[in-house]
Amino acid sequence: MAYTCTACGYSSPKWLGKCPQCGEWGTLEEGSGGATAIKTKAAKPTAGRRAKAITGIDPGTAVARPTGIGELDRVLGGGLVPGAVVLLAGEPGVGKSTLLLDVAARTARGGSTVLYVTGEESAGQVRLRAQRIGALEDRLLLAAETDLGTVLGLIEAEDPDFLIVDSVQTLSSTQVDGVPGGVTQVREVAAALIRAAKDRALPTVLVGHITKDGSVAGPRLLEHLVDVVCSFEGERHSRLRLLRAVKNRFGPTDEVGCFDMNEDGITGLSDPSGLFLSRSNSKAAGTCLSVAQEGRRPMVIEVQSLVDQAGAGAPRRTVSGVDASRVSMIIAVLSKHTGLGKHDVFVATVGGVKVGEPASDLAVCLALASAAADTPLYSRLVAIGEISLSGEIRQVPGVGQRLAEAARLGVTNAVVARGALENVTVPPGMRVRECDTVHDAIAAVLPAGAEPEGGAPAAAPAGSGAA
């Protein structure tokens, strides 16, 4: 006897809790060891399964069909392709079921038959949610089932145009050993549903649970079998939801869809930048705008900071929405100019958006300098650039697109790295300053005479500009 890993195929003569090859836990299952005779024999192909010349294949069978939700179509590459299988993963309560119920209702409203299989909730619970978000349609068929054989029978009987399974971990097959959600069951359920989708050209969406580390639960093979893997993200206490394509055989993987989660369901946000800006038009110290790049989409965000006298002990460093390690690095750089290292520092983004790229470093730096000096920056200012440990401002990609998005929202002043405007068309009416170092940027945007705590007065606005 031998034990084989269901995730990578590693074989061991004894049982192990952790696979030495792929590092997965609890994936070694008992099986027959040694060489196995080949059981699959060659079969004579039928008329419909013969190989065809690639020039004679109709490309129209792989054309995406819009779902009616623009942000979802953006991520999928135009819509759902017949026979495509999409795996939608996300944390509990993020809104996966609500989003798919809305998609199902829109598809049914267009005249297609939709089969929605729920294994986590009762039919009554789904019906109440559909009533709340306005998703009651006669052509939307609902089944609360956890048996794979019954689901396959429903597909044969109803012949739907669109299938949604919520979720793949709740279904199980009586023909396979293992508990629902286990590696063996998930693999069998996914393989059977994918086979049905391909044979019937049935677009299918499978909802998947995620583990503590954020990966899809079940065998890694599941992500390889499906055509599209999407991740639905969002903070529990924020209305913003982001949909990303981790894998996509029919479109790009660098697109991001933005959604607003509210009491009436989920709505797409074609222009999400307004969510990340404060409603107040008054100038306040410690605020600065930046432009984050989410996939191909630029989004204007607002960084807010607060600097206070430190109490006993080490100064506090509290951040929300930005990378804590990068903020600590920026504080170390600023301490050379303002003595900021001796103060309590708080940095946050507006709207709960998370910023991970270094292009917002300069905005964080200027916001902290403004808070330390208790002086607002020049109005309608956006800062774009990465900061090095030496205090140098580095260029970031997509400056032209970022500046255009900022100008669309009424921003008239910008600070970028030296040389960032090369081969870039500056939007009309926007004044852009190119700066080499952090000291130059602070002197360029803080009004003359503003004195950061512990540092010298900032110089009058200076530096190169481009109109």
Automatic annotation (TrEMBL):
SMART domains: AAA (SM00382). The keyword Nucleotide-binding applies. DNA-dependent ATPase involved in processing of recombination intermediates, plays a role in repairing DNA breaks. Stimulates the branch migration of RecA-mediated strand transfer reactions, allowing the 3' invading strand to extend heteroduplex DNA faster. Binds ssDNA in the presence of ADP but not other nucleotides, has ATPase activity that is stimulated by ssDNA and various branched DNA structures, but inhibited by SSB. Does not have RecA's homology-searching function. This is DNA repair protein RadA. Residues 61-210 form the RecA family profile domain. PANTHER family: DNA REPAIR PROTEIN RADA (PTHR32472), DNA REPAIR PROTEIN RADA-LIKE PROTEIN (PTHR32472:SF10). Coiled coil: none annotated. A motif (RadA KNRFG motif) lies at residues 247-251. Pfam families: AAA_25, ChlI, Zn_ribbon_LapB. The gene is radA.
